[in-house]
Amino acid sequence: MSAPVIVVGAGIAGLVVALSAAPRPVLLICRSESDGATPLAQGGIAAALAPGDSGNAHIEDSLIAGAGCNELAALRLLAFQAPSAVAWLASHGVDFDRDATGHLRFAREGGHRCARVLHADGDATGRAIARALAAAARQAGHVQRLSGPEVGALLRRGGRIAGVEARDARGRTQRIEAGAVVLATGGIGALLARHTSPRGADGGGLALGLAAGAAARDLEFLQFHPTALAHTGPDGRLPLITEALRGAGARLLDAQGRPLMQGIDPRGDLAPRDVVARAVWRATLGGAPVWLDARRLGDELPRRFPTVFALCQAQGIDPRLEPIPVQAAAHYHMGGLRTDLFGRCSLPGLYAAGEVACSGVHGANRLASNALLEAVVFGRRLGRCLAQGECADAPAGRLRVIGRGADLSDPQPLRQLLWRGFGPERSGTGLRAGLDGIAADPALAQSWQGRLAMNLLQAALARPQSLGAHWRCDAAPDHRRAA
């Protein structure tokens, strides 16, 4: 019997890896049945499948959005394998939206020169994908699912990652050995005071890898979504208002009802997310509202965007009759554990997929709807790599437990501190204040969340130029995007 693979996280990346690793046995460990950010994804999956579009055009748009610092080999894989990724999803039961003639329906989102984004169930693409892949995993004989435990440590033996230590809700720990461990734990958004992420997207997997000594990459690049519904939940999460609304004709307005993006960027409301998010951030700094006006969509809105319509109605807003109040919120981490094109981390036996991983494919700012695509393209490559014998039986020797450290009982002060220092606009003064604030609070400084936050702040401080989503208001911009 081949040594099993442990996959931590059951969002799209974890599920794709698990399914693609057949016939190697896989243990899929997740906090809950609806794990990860995938079910929340309203945006779709980008693929150059429409007439007149091309993989090269997709690459060029991704480079422009990513400020020109994307890893080109990874980006080529992403763009040219997009059609097969879409076909693979369809083969697993994802029913992409089609027009009245039966052809695939493409939407346009920010940064794309044309309509190339596929959706399923309108603006519930993530939920449709998660549902289909979870069903496929339940039927897959090689996949076993373990729901509930929290993975708080990695096991290491003979210089190789050899398993995990998991803790259940009653505090009982279990050590599970494996031939390989794949971290597919999502991003870091929930570490900030305003975010669009699920509670579990708190950087826990990234902290695990860093504690074990894995190399990181591009930690300073955090994308802020420009249109989150201006209604903050108790954990700081704001409901997402999909960018596809602007692609369909909705417009951002300032407090006086004027077009917000006029004179800021020639691409207007469909400029890359970092540009639009900063404009929204600046407009709301003094407490003034910013509005997303989708009234021109009329009765088409609840049909094409049922998730957004329901979210608005839950707050007493009818977007057919009144504009939607929006603000910027932390959304997607382009940085993470450094991986190669097969998902390998710098530690033998440790792999990463999805938002916790960083191959450099997104550069300094992710192009809209490239995230689901990345999870499928690179998740399949990693799964096939593991299926072909990449992982091995753990070597003999003493087993070492490497935990990420103490948990923070109250994350709210840290969320506020990071929002001030690590937000859409940064400065050396603000970043140093954040580091000093953590160092001055023993509970923060000794927690894994605090140590992770210090890594983020230090990475941002080490890049004095503005680049993509990392915007230093006290420094000149890096002009790679313009070039």
Radius of gyration: 21 Å
* Unreliable residue stretches: none
Count every helix, treating DSSP H or I runs of 4 or more residues as helices. Answer: 15
What overall geometry do the principal axes of the alpha carbons give? Answer: globular
Question: What would you call the structural class?
Answer: alpha/beta
Adjacency order of strands in the biggest sheet:
6-2-1-10-17
Q: Give the percentage of residues in beta strands.
A: 15-25%
Regarding quaternary structure, what we see is: single chain
Number of domains: 3
Which fold name fills CATH's third level, the topology of the largest domain? FAD/NAD(P)-binding domain
CATH class of the largest domain: Alpha Beta
- What is the tally of beta strands? 19
- Report the helical percentage: 25-40%
Distance between the termini: 53 Å
The averaged pLDDT comes out at 92
Summarize the main sheet: 5 strands, parallel
CATH architecture type of the largest domain: 3-Layer(bba) Sandwich
CATH superfamily of the largest domain: FAD/NAD(P)-binding domain
Structure in words:
With 483 residues, this protein is an alpha/beta fold. It has three domains: 5-220 and 334-402, 3-Layer(bba) Sandwich (FAD/NAD(P)-binding domain), CATH 3.50.50.60; 226-330, Succinate dehydrogenase/fumarate reductase flavoprotein, catalytic domain (Flavocytochrome C3, Chain A, domain 1), CATH 3.90.700; 407-462, no CATH class. 31% of the residues lie in helices and 18% in strands. It has helices at 12-20, 55-65, 72-80, 82-91, 125-139, 204-212, 244-247, 273-284, 300-304, 306-314, 371-387, 412-421, 428-439, 442-445, 448-462, and strands at residues 5-8, 26-30, 45-46, 106-107, 117-118, 143-147, 150-157, 160-167, 173-177, 180-183, 216-217, 222-229, 251-253, 290-293, 324-333, 336-338, 350-352, 357-358, 399-403. The strands form five sheets. Strands 6-2-1-10-17 form a five-stranded parallel sheet, with helices on both faces. The chain has a four-stranded antiparallel sheet with strand order 9-8-7-19, covered by helices on one side. Helix 6 (204-212) packs across helix 15 and helix 13 (428-439) packs antiparallel against helix 15 (448-462). The N and C termini lie far apart (53 Å). The mean pLDDT is 92.
